[in-house]
Amino acid sequence: MSREHGKGMSLIVKTVTRLTVGLILLYGIYIVLHGHLSPGGGFAGGVIIALSFIHLMLAYGKEIALKKLSKPILSLFESIGAITFLSIALLGFSGGYFFLNFISKGKPFKLFSAGIIPFCNIAICLKVGAGLFAIFVVLVLLKFDAENKE
Amino acid sequence: MTPTSHIIPLFVAVSLAGAFLISLTAKKLKWLPDIMGSLTTLILLVLSIVAVYMTNKQGTFVYNAGNWKLPSGISLVLDPLTSFMLVTINLIAFLTAVYSVNYMERFTSKWKFYTLFLLMLAGMNGVVITGDMFNLFVFLEIAAVASYALVAFGTEKHELEAAFKYAVMGTVGSLFILIGIVFLYSYTSTLNMADMAQILLQKPKANLTLIVSVLFLMGFGLKAAMVPFHAWLPDAHPSAPAPISAMLSGVLIKSLGIYTLCRIFYNVLGINSSLSSILMFLGTLSMIIGGLLAIGQWDFKRLLAYSSISQVGYIILGIGLGTPLGIAAALFHLFNHSVFKSLLFLNSGALEYATGTRDLREMGGLTQKMPVTGTTNFIASMSIAGIPPLNGFWSKLLIIIAAVQANRYGYALCAVLISILTLAMYIKVLKFAFLGRLKEKWNKVKEIPRFMSLAMVILAFICIIGGILLIPNISNIFLKPASDILMGGKNYASIILEGIQ
Q: Which chain B residues are closer than 8 Å to A86 by Cβ?
C-alpha cells in the first residue's frame, strides 16, 4: 500500500468514494445549471459541490482534498463569486434599474432562458460552494493545530 | 422615478463592492485595504449628504429593484428619516475607517478587518434603506454576523467568549424578529412595509399585532440593548478592537435596534398608548441601570459600554414620549450619541494603543503626554454629561423638556438625575486617566499617530458645533423632516404607495 493510502478511512470507503465523488460533483453542477428550470439553484448546487470535496476529505484525509482545491484558491473563488453577483446586479443599470433582468428571457423551460438568473446561480454556487468547503477546511485545520500544540 | 434616485441602491452596492474587492486583491496589494476602506466610506458619506439634499428637495423616493412593481418586488425607500440615519452611519464609519489606518497596525491580516467592516456597513445601510420587511431581516443578519466576527477579531480567550455570548444572544433576538415577520406575513400576505401598514389599517384590530409588537420589542430591543436584554453589550463592545467598539456603540445598536423599532412601531404597526408607556418605562430603566452599573467600572471600555446602555435609554424615552418634540429630541440625541460615544471609544483605543492597558487605576496624568487624546476626551466627556454649549446638553435638555411637556415629571426627574450620574462617571475617567500626576512608567508614552488624531479631532469638532443642528434653518433640513416621518405614522404607507402609482 502506498503512503497515500496510509491516511484516511478504509479501502472500502475509499473505493466507494472514488466511484461516487465524480457523480456527486456532476449532480451539483446539474442542479446549478438547471436552477431556473427545476427545484434547486445556486445555493443547493453549491452545497452539493462542496459536499463532494468534503466527501473526498473525509475518505482520503485533508492533504489529498486540499491538493485538489487549496485554501488560496477557495478564497479566490469565494471573492469572485461575490463580485460576479454584484456585477450582474450593477449591470442592470444598463437597462435603467439595479438588478434588472437585462438579458432576453428566451422561451420558458429551455436551458438557455430566464436572462440573468442562470448567471446569478453560477455566481451563488461559487460563493456558497467555496465558502462552505472553506468553513469545513478551517474547522479541520484548527483542530489539527490544537492537537499539535498538546 | 427620477434619475437621481439611482443612488439609492448604491449605498449597499458600494460597500459590498469595497468589501469583496478587498478580499479579492488584498493578498497581492498590501496597501490597498487602507485606501479602499477610507475611500469607500468617503464615497458613502458624500452619497448620504446628496441623499439629504434630495429628500429635502423632493421628499420621499422609492426605488424598485429590478423594475418589479410594488407590492411584489423589493422596494428601497429614501425618506428624510433614512437620509438622517445614513448620514449618521456613514459619518461615523468614515471617521473610524480613517482611525483604523493606524490603529489596526497592531493586528495581523488587516484586510479581513476591512472586509468585515464594510460588510457590516453594507448591512447597516441596507437595514436603513430597505422598504421590505424580509429584506430588512436579511440586512440585519448581514450586519449582525459581521459584527460577531469583528468582536472576536483579537482571538484572545475573553474576546472569543464575548463573541460567543453575543452571537448566541443576537441569534435569539434575530429569531424573535423572524417569528414576528412570519406572523405578520401570514396575516397580511405581503412583505412590503408600506403595503403591510395599509392592510393592517384596513383589517380589524387583532391580537396578532399585540403578539408581534411584543416579539419585535424583544428582538429589536435586544439589538438596541434595552435593559432586560442588555447582557451581551458590556462584554461584546469592550472586547472588539476600538474602531469596531466605536461602530458598535455608535451606530450598530442604533441602526439595527432603535431605527427599526421606530420605523416598525410608528410607520407599520402603528403606536398606541400602552406600547409607548412600555417604551418609556424600558427606556428609563435602561437609563438608570446602565448609569448605576457604569459608575462602578474600572475598565475604561466597559464603563463606556454601560454608559451606552444608559444613553440608549434616553433615546428610547424620547421615542416613547411620542410628541413631536420628544421624537426630534430623541433623534438629535441619537446623532449626538453616535458622535461622542464613538469619540470616547476611539479615545479608549488611543489610550490602549499608547499604554497597553484599559484599567483606569493604572493610568494617570496622561494629558501631559497625549494632549490630543486628553483634550478630545475632555470635550466628549463634557458633551455626554450634558454641559452647555456642547451638543449633548441640547439634546438632553430637549428630552427633559419634552417629558415635562407630556406631564411625565417622574421620567424627567430620572433623566436629570442620571445626567448628574453621567457627569460623575466621566469626571472619574478624567481624574484617573488624564489629570493628576503622571506615573513614572508612562514617561515614555508618545502621542498617537496622525490619522488617529485626525479622526478624533474631527469628532470633537462635531461635538462642539453639534448644537447648530437646532437652528431652525438647519433643523428644517436635517432633523425636523426625519421626526415628521415618524410623527406622520401610517401616512408613510400612502406616501410610498402614491409615489408608485
A: 13, 16-17, 20
Q: How confident is the model at residue A143 (pLDDT cuts 50, 70, 90)?
A: low
Q: Cβ contact (<8 Å) for A90 and B63?
A: no
pLDDT, tens digit, 9 for 90 and up, residues B128-143: 999 899 999 999 999 9
Q: Which residues of B touch A (CB under 8 A)?
A: 6, 9, 13, 16-17, 20-21, 23-24, 27, 63-67
Contact B268, B188 (CB under 8 A): no
Query: Which one-letter amino acid corresponds to residue B343?
Result: L
Q: How far apart are CA A17 and CA A12, in angstroms?
A: 8
Which residue in B169, B160, B177 sits closest to B225, CA to CA? B169
The 3-state DSSP class for residue B192 equals strand
Name the one residue in this structure whose C-alpha cell is 448620504: B48
Rounded CA-CA distance A30/B496 in Å is: 42
Q: Measuring CA to CA, how many Å separate B488 from each of B317, B318, B408, B477?
A: 19, 16, 23, 17
- Asked whether the beta carbons of residue B21 and residue A100 sit closer than 8 angstroms, the reply is no
Residue B370 has pLDDT above 90, yes or no: no
Distance CA A29, CA A15 (A): 23
How far apart (Å, rounded) are the C-alpha atoms in residues B196 and B81? 19
Q: Domains in chain A: how many in total?
A: 1
Confidence at residue A1, expressed as pLDDT on a 0 to 100 scale? 43
Distance of CA B53 to the CA centre of its chain: 22
The 10 Å Cβ neighbour count of residue A96 is 12
> Cβ atoms within 10 A of the Cβ of A134, count?
17
Q: What residue spans of B300-408 are helical by DSSP H?
A: 300-321, 324-355, 371-385, 391-405
Which residues in A lie closer than 8 A to residue B65 (C-beta atoms)? 97-99
pLDDT in tens, A60-113: 887 888 888 888 888 888 889 999 999 988 888 877 788 888 787 878 888 888
Q: How far is CA B316 from the centre of its chain?
A: 13
The reported pTM is 0.92
Contact list in A for residue B64 (CB cut-off 8 A) is: 97
The residue that leads in pLDDT, A125 or B59, is A125
| pLDDT for residue B105 | 83
DSSP output for B276-316: HHHHHHHHHHHHHHHHHHHHT--BHHHHHHHHHHHHHHHHH
Bridge partner residues of B78 (DSSP): B61
pLDDT digits over A20-50, tens only? 999 999 999 999 988 888 888 889 999 999 9
pLDDT tens for B290-334 read 999 998 888 999 999 999 999 999 999 999 998 889 999 999 999
Question: Which residues partner with B63 through β-bridges?
Answer: B76
Q: Which three cell numbers stand for residue B154?
A: 483579537
Instruction: Give dist(CA B188, CA A114) in Å, integer.
Output: 30
pLDDT band at A149 (very low <50, low <70, confident <90, very high): low
Interhelix angle B133-151/B110-129, nearest 10 degrees: 160
Residue A150 burial by Cβ neighbours in a 10 Å radius (0-12, 13-18, 19+): exposed
**Which ipTM value was assigned to this complex?**
0.85
CB B246 within 8 A of CB B92: yes
What is the structure's pLDDT at A6? 60
Domain that holds residue A128: 3-149
